[in-house]
Amino acid sequence: MLEIKDLSVAYGSKRVLHDVSLKVEPGEILAVVGESGSGKSTMLRSILGLNGGSAAVERGQVLFDGRDLLTAGEKELRRIRGGEIAMVFQQPAQSFDPVTKIGRQVYETVRAHEKLSKADTYEKMRTLLADMKLPEPDRILNSYPFELSGGMCQRVALALAMVLKPRLLLADEPTSALDVTVQAQVIATMMKLRENFGMSILLVTHNIGVAAHMAGRMAVMYRGSIVEQGETRQILSAPAHEYSRRLIASVPVIGTGR
Fold first, then answer.
1. Measured CA distances, 196 to 47, 131, 223, 241 (Å)
2. What is the DSSP letter of 38?
3. In what order do the strands lie in the sheet with 168-172?
């Protein structure tokens, strides 16, 4: 479904991605793990051209169903963003318009891709919110983002991402700003969405536990390069690269004194 080939990205004279290559198969969850600053988010945003003017793609391809998104026009990208590929950001509250109610933002998103009435759009969103065990969907739709908790905002962002039933979800550190209980709720929500919609997920995270729970395959990123990739179970049990070994060893284990 998605293939990143030899992708290199720079901010000015500083290259932050070095010939990154990955594949995401239909229905698969692939996790990209690594410490903060390793280039994970830059890679994810590059897929949809969301890095802004300060970042430049030096070379490479991002193929979605064989079509290179890096050479796609703005009109085609607008169709793909949200409709075919959705993205959930690390700070969901910051990705919402703070002065527009959630329901209005949902409606504007859907109307950009489908000709649905406001009533039908709200009904679709109510169903998604109810599936995520979020109480009072109508109150949420009538709320501003700052009126929702961080965990609620993240799940609303997931519902908004899924309202158009995309085939691929890009998730940028979706649990990093949440407490442990809410992390579990968000992970369960993502797994349920994947099961219900049959979508693929490309997850970037520095949380090895989240990657181990969610992903069948894992790629390890270090200083802008993929140093190892393969089945999650294999990498966690027998990492081949020194950085992978150090990254896994850094995970605290209860009762061991580290």
1. 24, 10, 36, 36
2. S
3. 85-88, 168-172, 200-205, 29-33, 217-222, 225-231
State the Cα–Cα distance between residues 236 and 214, nearest whole angstrom: 13
Helix (H, G, I), strand (E, B) or coil at 169: strand
DSSP 199: -
Pairing assessment for the beta strands 200-205 and 29-33 based on DSSP bridges: parallel
Residue reference for tokens 């393969």: 230
**Spatial CA neighbour of 162 closest among 129, 204, 116:** 129
**Amino acid 186: pLDDT:** 78
Q: How far is CA 165 from the centre of its chain?
A: 15
Specify the 3-state DSSP secondary structure of 3: strand
Distance, CA of 252 to CA of 113 (rounded, Å): 45
Tell me how far the alpha carbon of residue 32 is from its chain's centroid: 10
Question: What is the gyration radius of the CA atoms in the chain, in angstroms?
Answer: 18
Q: Is 43 left (phi over 0), alpha (psi -120 to 50) or beta?
A: alpha
Which residue, chain included where needed, has tokens 């039908």? 120
Residues in the chain: 258
Residue with tokens 């993502």: 190
Candidates 186, 162, 172; CA nearest to 32 is: 172
Distance CA 95, CA 115 (A): 24
Q: What is the pLDDT of residues 46-68, one digit of tens each?
A: 999 888 778 899 999 999 999 99
Give the mean pLDDT of 210-230: 94
